[in-house]
Amino acid sequence: MALFPFGRKAAPARTGSAALTAFLNGYSIEVMPRTAEKIPDFRTLLPAGTRVYIAHIEGTPIEEMAATAKRLRAEGYEPMPHFPARIIADKAMLADWVARYKGEADVKQGLILAGNPQKQLGDFNSSMQLLESGCFDGFERLHVAGHPEGNKDIDPDGSDRMVMEAARWKTAFAQRTDAKMAMATQFCFDAGPVIDWVNNLQKAGVDLPVHIGIAGPAKLQTLIKFAIACGVGPSLKVLQKRAMDVSKLLLPYEPDELLIQLAEHKAANPGFGIESVHFFPLGGIKTNAEWTHRHGQTPVSAAA
Predict the structure, then answer these.
(1) Which of 14, 28, 125, 265 lies deepest, with the highest CB count within 10 Å?
(2) Residue 175 sits in a domain of what CATH number?
(3) Is the peptide bond before 156 cis (omega within 30 degrees of 0)?
(4) Are 48 and 298 in contact (CB under 8 A)?
């Protein structure tokens, strides 16, 4: 599929997807420095002001991370770099990262997470330790990780005891910081468990807004590979069932059904805790962005 044509209006949303279009407004998306380099101009793909997470994979030089943030800021986007606790040596390194991001790209937002590898490489082991460091004072927005289907690394017994304990701690922290906070989640493929999880958070007093992780359009084999690697839980069965249907096996997966269900639930229940959609563009940034264009999300170049 070609890039969204310069100067043309976005294609109208598909019939019956008004709730989906509204649900997608203000979505965010994730890039890495090496994937960002392949995009000549994000303004041909993303709406103005889109929040763009910058994933920090172990071994990526901070110079590349800061340069990506600077480039996104220059093109009119809101960079939100990852701060993975377990690859940060000490508070001095953390402070240096923050200073670089602020000085080079006016970064005001960050995703604070434990990250990989499971073995910590320095002084930090958890997002909570990073939040308590004081290095993020003055940030306007801080996001933390959420796990709709649990996390075996955190709760090896398959429960959600430690995950929920951490969520309650982060909720309490949100009350004593000036930054806006939200919970950005791992991607999943089944609306039912997501709805139940969000409702259970609210019942437990965890009132952080949820930015639900969604895998963007991709080949089915690609999604299954990433889902297994990332520890996606029961909703992986949705992909496995699809893989057994010969008529769908060769077709790319698109998240329409999942998102329409969530969007319609949100429209019927305005107090429902999902605030925004966050895309993992596993099939490529262009492919993901072009899918959003078909659902009413207009890139800068088309809006001009």
Answers:
(1) 28
(2) 3.20.20.220
(3) no
(4) no
